[in-house]
Amino acid sequence: MDSIQADRLVGKCPTVSAYVAGFKVNCLVDTGSTVTTVTESFYNRFLRKCTDLQTDITFNLKGANGTCIPYIGYVEVDIDLMGQRLPNRGVLIVKDPIDSYTRMRKENVPGLLGMNVISLCKKLLQEDYGNQYSEAVTEIAENFKLRELFKACDKKEHCNTIGFVKLCSNSPVRIPADSVIILNGTGPNLPRLYDAVVEPLHTSGHLPSTFIVVHTFVSVRNGRLTFRVANIGDEDI
């Protein structure tokens, strides 16, 4: 995949600057991730000499498309984010990507902030600024995507499922092997534009285990939205 094609297919995620063990790093903000990561290159350059790498973990780390993400271990460090000190946060050290395009993106943004950091940071911000923290904190207030993401997190904490997504198609849809595709769907038709998170059901019914509904932050207008599904198998679905 060349960079022009990839830029058309891959959207930009919210980013923010954080300090990991005192070193500045640009990070994606991913509420769909339970863990925080930095690349092996960043670790070798900044963290290797000042942290102790722990390798006593054996869980499988998977990306949004269901594929495994290799890592070499983790470190426990203090993270400074949006004026808050988050002590002893676990950070996984993921191996550098193989393909040149992803490697270039990771060189520019080598970090990823998951919920083990985001949830604590949000809690501390709420203690300092109350429920209006997203307007009071400059990093959030001046970044539309980041502001909407934090608002969606707030709604998710206080709301249950608001409805279900149905596919906008009268004919079967083929999902090629080892791929992620974007589909058009319909959801609850509320009287205004609203944001939501599309998540998989706990049961997949008759669908194969290689089918995955990717957690997707969406804006719903007139009940219409787009969402992502993945086929991590070797055969088309």
From TrEMBL:
Q: Which InterPro entries match?
A: Aspartic_peptidase_AS, Peptidase_aspartic_dom_sf
Question: CDD domains per the record?
Answer: retropepsin_like (cd00303)
Q: What are its GO biological-process terms? A: proteolysis
Instruction: Output one GO MF annotation.
Output: aspartic-type endopeptidase activity
SUPFAM superfamilies named among the record's database cross-references: Acid proteases
Protein known as = Uncharacterized protein
- List residues traversing the bilayer: none
Organism, as annotated: Mytilus galloprovincialis
